[in-house]
Design goal:
The chain is of the alpha/beta class. It contains three helices and 18 strands.
């Protein structure tokens, strides 16, 4: 592991264990420093670095976009995000694992007084991919914006577990997870908002919405609340629904081809999440990934239909 003197405002990365596919990536942000981490030299590729710790000091701001891809069989990435008083951290995890990869990942975030964490996940790959996102708001006035966009195709399973832990007074969090399941894919969402006894004045919200593109696709959503203080505002909501046939008919009746109509409906459904991801420069790539998955699933459905006709 690399060692050295860290000056205020520097970003430092250290890596260990790259031969064994385990390791540690560390970023430290000094006071009053702004960093855009989307440039090539600042994007963290976790193919070999399976653990990461990111710290934003007081009044610092940090945007991070790690990418998870190309692992052959099993990957278990762990990321810790620690934001001190009045710091701001934006984090976007892009999961594009191969079709045979299994992933069990965790993102553990902690925010001090008046700190803000914006953490988002884009999940597209893997045979089975579970992501756990824990957010602890431990300082008065801390805030968390939590989001995910996901698209399952073929026989994928995308599994999400979230924990919004309000420890201090006057803390706020807003979670929005939206995803599409096509083919025979599955999505699972299990979330918990916990309000501790001392966390008066908490505002916490949790929403999970799923769009089914096929009868064989399946989605399950289980939001939960655990409230130990009566001076709070909390809500949770979840939906699983097929494509709105009225929307499809409206588009097709105006000359929009069926495939394009479906693409527009999916884009509109997921657009709410994409508009709020903390690293906006990544949005065009995310939109392209969604379009590719939709086109690939449409091709698989077409091939399956042709095979059924030939069998008859």
């Amino acid at each position: 592991m690399h060692e050295g003197v860290v000056q205020e405002g520097e970003v430092v990365a250290g890596v260990v264990g790259d031969r064994t596919k385990t390791g540690l990536a560390v970023l430290v942000l000094g006071q009053r420093t702004d960093v855009d981490a989307l440039s090539d030299e600042r994007v963290i590729d976790l193919d070999e670095h399976h653990a990461a710790v990111h710290a934003a000091d007081q009044r610092g701001r940090l945007d991070i976009e790690p990418r998870h891809r190309r692992i052959a069989k099993l990957v278990c990435p762990v990321v810790e995000l620690d934001v001190e008083a009045a710091g701001r951290l934006g984090y976007l995890k892009v999961q594009e694992q191969g079709a045979k990869t299994w992933q069990f990942g965790s993102v553990l975030a902690r925010a001090e007084r008046d700190a803000t964490i914006s953490a988002a996940t884009a999940a597209f790959g893997g045979a089975y991919a579970r992501t756990r996102a824990d957010t602890r708001l431990v300082g008065r006035g801390a805030h968390g914006d939590l989001a995910a966009v996901y698209f399952g195709e073929s026989e994928q399973t995308l599994d999400f577990r979230t924990y919004q832990d309000h420890v201090a007074p006057d803390t706020t969090s807003n979670l929005l997870y939206k995803g599409v399941v096509a083919g025979k894919s599955r999505s699972v969402y299990t979330g918990l908002i916990r309000v501790r006894p001392d966390a008066r004045g908490t505002n916490a919200f949790q929403t999970n919405r799923n769009l089914k593109l096929s009868d064989d696709a399946w989605a399950e959503s289980v939001p939960n609340l655990e409230i130990e203080n009566n001076d709070v505002k909390c809500s949770h909501a979840s939906t699983v629904s097929p494509v709105d046939e009225d929307q499809r008919f409206y588009l097709e009746s105006r000359g929009v081809p069926t495939a394009e109509a479906e693409r527009l409906i999916v884009a509109g459904f997921l657009g709410e999440v994409l508009a709020g991801v903390p690293v906006q420069a990544a949005v065009p790539a995310l939109k392209s990934a969604i379009a590719e998955k939709l086109a690939r699933q449409r091709e698989l459905d077409s091939t399956a239909s042709e095979s059924e006709l030939e069998a008859v």
